[in-house]
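To the structural biology subgroup,

Please find below the input and predicted structure for Wall-associated receptor kinase galacturonan-binding domain-containing protein, which we are adding to the shared reference set this quarter. The sequence is reproduced verbatim from the submission form. If anyone notices a discrepancy with their own records, reply to this email rather than editing the shared folder directly, so we keep one authoritative version.
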Amino acid sequence: MFGGKILLAGYTTLVVLVLFSVNCYAWKIPHHCDPSSCGNNDKITPPFRLKGDPKNCSDEKYELECENNRTVLHLFSGKYYVEEIDYHNYRIRVVDVGIHKDDCSLPLYSLTEYNFSKYYHHYSDSPYHWRYAYASSLVVFMNCENPVKSPRYMDNSNRRSCAKGGGNSSGSVKEQYLYVVVGELKVSDVADLCTVEMMVPIAQPPLLMSGENGGNISISFLDVHNAMANGFELYYYDFCPSNWTSFQCRMWKIAY
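Predicted structure (tokenized):
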């Protein structure tokens, strides 16, 4: 009788493994979906999809929109233009829709690494996960009641003169004495009667790296604006197929 229980347990395990293998094999045969296109993104393929694409093409969690011939990503409460998708390295470069090249426009949305989960939850039913690119730096907008004299605080006047015709203040930052700080900002760096209005991630070009190491005196707001207009990167991952259960995802992680 004991031997029968062993055989039954072994048979049950075999059935589970076979069914799991069949599901794995079925997932690896992708649905045929023609690439979508929008503006400069002429080949949008899974895991991304455009709104309106067939439901079996990728996953709605990675759904993008095409607005006025620009690819748009809605992330948290923000809206970002998709400048580039790097499928090989699982990266996507986006820029705040409020920032326009060749003027002094301001961003509309604040975003930092703390908006993102640092660890993927292995028991989550969600197979997709955004991650903040930790190579990114920050542009911090400070609003102060009084003028601040500090090499780290870039004066608002630099913004007004950064483009022909003057600055465009149509962003979400309200001005009193508006300053910009590039790089890491500690509590001790915040001057009296100053508040952080917004934090915007940027890719970290060599020109702006010096801002984290002793001030950014040589950097103009034009440099900062160009960095913001270039956008920042996010990583995306596909941990398990959307039609799997959380149990199947956990089994996959154990097996591989």
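Summary notes: The radius of gyration is 24 Å. The chain has five helices and 13 strands.

Regards,
Lab coordination
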